[in-house]
Amino acid sequence: MKPVSRRAQLGLIALVYASVVGWASWVLYMRNQYELAHAADVDASGGMYAFGDMTLYLLVALVFMIPTAFLLWFVARFEAFYTAYCWLLLIVSLTAPAGLGLFFPGASETAKSFGLLGLLRLTVAPAVLVLIGISRLVARFARAQRLTAYAFLIEGATLATAVALVILVPLSPRR
């Protein structure tokens, strides 16, 4: 059996990406049409619809992980490029502790805006953790394995800390 060429592999990965983009576009369009048709319900239960939207966005991000896993598996053969990508992952993972620090804003409007940015970064932390985990699994070279392990530890520890803070810190204001 003849091996599949690199060009064919990249073409298949691009085809899967295109199909995921098409599926995601259709799902998000249908969700938007539903919310437009039921505007009164959205106004009455805005928080519930916002949570549904966030859940849908996370599902779309996780579905995008399928072709991304194949792309990472393909790219992992090239040491210099993959090591640079792993450095980028490490830098991205360092934004998670910063997001956790920003999540506890002060009273000013600027601080609240940064708190929202911190919340958004922590919201995508599970998807980033999955991406780092996939990158660690397909890493072939020692330096790339080490960098992805560090990134995974930073991202995982930050996510665990955020969950622990939500569980352990009381929601009532201090007096």
Tell me what the structure shows:
The chain is flat. Helices cover 84% and strands 0% of the residues. By secondary structure, the chain is mostly helical. The protein has 2 domains: 75 residues; 98 residues.
Which radius of gyration do the C-alpha atoms yield?
A: 20 Å
Per the principal axes of the C-alpha atoms, what is the gross shape?
flat
Helix/strand structural class: mainly alpha
Helix content: over 70%
H/I helix tally:
8
Write down the secondary-structure element order: HHHHHHHH
Unreliable residue runs: none
β-strand number? 0
Tell me the fraction of residues in β-strands, as a range.
under 5%
- Terminal-residue CA separation: 73 Å
* Count of separate structural domains: 2
Q: Could you tell me the mean pLDDT?
A: 89
Major pleated sheet: none
Describe the secondary structure blueprint for this structure.
Layout: H1 6-37, H2 39-44, H3 46-75, H4 79-93, H5 95-102, H6 109-123, H7 125-138, H8 142-168
Keywords summarizing the entry:
2 domains; mainly alpha; 175 residues
Brief summary:
With 175 residues, the protein is mainly α.
